[in-house]
Amino acid sequence: MKRIIFVLLLPFMVSAQINFNLGLIGSYEWPTTEGNDIWGWVDPINGGEYALVGLNDGFSCVNVSNPGNPVEMFYIPDINSTWRDVKTWGNYAYVTTEADAGLLIVDLSDMTGNTNWHVSNFTNPTTGASVEFTAAHNIYIDENGIAYIFGASSATGSSPSDGAIFLDVAANATAPHYLGEWDEHYIHDGMVRGDTMYAGCIYAGELYVVDVSNKSNPSTLGTHSTPNNFTHNAWISDDGNFVFTTDETSDAYLAAYDITDCNNIQEVDRIQSNPGTGTIPHNVHVDGNFLVTSYYRDGTTVHDITYPNNMIQVAYYDSYGGSGNGFDGCWGTYPFLPSGIIISSEINSSSNQSAKLMIYERGFAQACYLEGNITDASTGSNLSGASIEILNTTLPNGSSSNLLGEYISGTADAATYDVVFSKPGYLTDTLSAILTNGQVTILDAALQPLIAFNAGGMVIDVSGNGIANSQVVIFNADFTFSATTDANGNFSINNMYEGNYEVIAGQWGYVTSCGNEYIATSTINTITLQDGYYDDFTFDFGWTVNGNASAGIWERGEPQGTSYQGDEFNPEDDVNNDCTDFAYVTGNGGGSAGNDDVDDGNTILTSPIFDATNNSVNFVEYYKWFAVGGGNGGPSNDELTITISNGTTSALLETLNVSSPNLNSWSFSSFDIAQYITPTATMQLTVVTADMPSGHLVEAAFDMFKLTSQPNAVNDVSVVEKGKLIDVVDVLGRSVKNTTYSPVFYRYENGSVEKKVIIN
């Protein structure tokens, strides 16, 4: 819910915390390239520790034995590629890339980097079976010296498995033997322990557990979908009972699964490091009781997994200056060096495109665990779905009770905390708890039930007449109530509870009303709607959708943002300063930019009929969004067109294309209807976009339609009105108060109108 709030601003300082329980102690930068994945290696002779870093233009080995002064030992240039992955066996590093460079094998006992091979053909000397691959997305090498090549392809046209190819590097480090493959699905990333492979089948959206004891005949043991259905990687717990996964998509979860029975894999917990920001998790590793994960724009994060059904974040270092959805910042992390340092690789930073190695020291310990039971204080029955929040903590810790009223939660640092227990229909209760690192604290709560009552009200016009069929929604964080008025404008709601609510009412042909009100048993809600046309899509007023596109159809909802090449593509938010967060968007599935954009045709949004004859001058106003990119068919010929009809003829108001300003952002438009078409009582607005044959990515959005006789400025403009009586109104045109000010300054900029009153 959006509100306009007038506040007195006082001087204050805000310090943004970029790290918590994880300290940066060293770094190394490559100024002319971007980075990708990372691994570590320890010299078995002298114990020296090294970071093995993939770069877009090659492979680098950096000595991190002195973390405060890392030194690059060698660099091997290679075919440019965004993707490079590294693993080790003995004194050798094995590097895959999606460029057609084959498997790069580097002898790490030669710190000049001059001893290396590119290998593409692999043969089993016993059976004669062979395979060729020139590109692969990823690699893992298990404790037996078997390399698993994931997502392979060949420049020669042969068809290697893009699932997993098994190579024996222990038998011959520089000419690995081919053993077999698994090809049920494409594997993006995975790991293996004890002849069991845990695979992230990203396009299937599932974790696969595969028995690879017989390399010539592997078999699937079990599968499970992951929370966001875009399974990137997986890692097994030290005891082998749990697997942890990431989904490589916006606002995705880390998830934990009990695999003690692979025929019945059970998800036991899921968690987001920075919920609601759109950030994308990438690679996760299990390091004892901790889960160390690289997040693109959120850096390196650490979660306590002592209890896999209660994952608790205990540390992070936000290494990227930006935030939200996007493939920048941290690519990978490696937590297994004997010294305990954690090394992470940066694709780039927010200030430049330089690859960077980050070296961290640990400041975290086991979490503090909180458990208990929540009951109804009157009946003693267990309460499911109650919310639990530990106050004054650095990291998110929200939880809820299960069907038995039980909950589990926790936080990173020991202290005495206030814990808030709440559930719709009950009084909120706050209890105190002393939490200690590594220990479980039990805290039970009993909540008092609230008394329900029936409420009612009326929606009227400015003359006091009831408005039939008006839509009303009344809500707060706990409850949402909806109603439609009867023939006399009356509405009723049963089983409400006393408290503060947002109250919104609207009807086509009127200006939507929204505000905040305390509702009690004696409250009678009377809502007055001004005549006019206004639609921010809080309600469904009857806009129609048609067209022939196969995807990306216009739909009303809260926008789910996507990005493409660093640009916001589908909007993450609707236009500010309206009643709720809804807009019309072309497809609203979130994820990557191409998942739900307009495809193979057009999609058409048409307004209900409106009357433009009530005033001598009428302006139609709205906000629109258009984004276009990608494609292999040359410059885009895709457009967004907005037309107006008077029931007889139509006129084009505007066209947006790849050359238009304000792409990938909300922009405001205002048109004097009479300058384009004869106003009638049967007007309609139509918004059309299409994916033309060249196949580009196309997204559009539309919000905050309004018909007004007082236009906002179309271009930047300043108007000073000398002292006069001003009707002060909010964004919806509702009168706040009348008073005399001098002068008044109006300015339109970046899609909004700002009204400043200057008191002399």
Features:
disordered C terminus, 760 residues, Immunoglobulin-like, mainly beta, 5 domains, disordered N terminus, Methylamine Dehydrogenase, Chain H
Describe this structure in words.
The protein folds into five domains: 76-332, 7 Propeller (Methylamine Dehydrogenase, Chain H); 368-447, Carboxypeptidase-like, regulatory domain (Immunoglobulin-like, Sandwich); 453-530, Carboxypeptidase-like, regulatory domain (Immunoglobulin-like); 544-708, Jelly Rolls (Sandwich), CATH 2.60.120.200; 718-757, no CATH class. The chain is built from no helices and 66 strands. Strand 9 (103-107) and strand 10 form a beta hairpin. It is globular, with a radius of gyration of 30 Å.
Give a brief rundown of this model:
The protein is mainly β and 760 residues long. It has no helices and 66 strands. Residues 1-16 and 713-760 have low confidence and may be disordered.
Given helix and strand content, the structural type is mainly beta
Largest sheet: 6 strands, antiparallel
Number of domains: 5
What's the tally of helices? Answer: 0
Through-space gap between termini: 35 Å
What sort of overall outline do the alpha carbons produce when their principal axes are compared? globular
Strand segment count:
66
CATH topology of the largest domain: Methylamine Dehydrogenase, Chain H
User: How much of the sequence is in beta strands?
Assistant: over 45%
Question: Which regions have little confidence, pLDDT < 50, spanning 5+ residues?
Answer: 1-16, 713-760
Q: Kindly state the mean pLDDT as a whole number? A: 89
CATH-assigned homologous superfamily of the largest domain: YVTN repeat-like/Quinoprotein amine dehydrogenase
Helix share, percent: under 10%
Structural Rg: 30 Å
Name of the top-level CATH class of the largest domain = Mainly Beta
At CATH level 2, the architecture of the largest domain is 7 Propeller
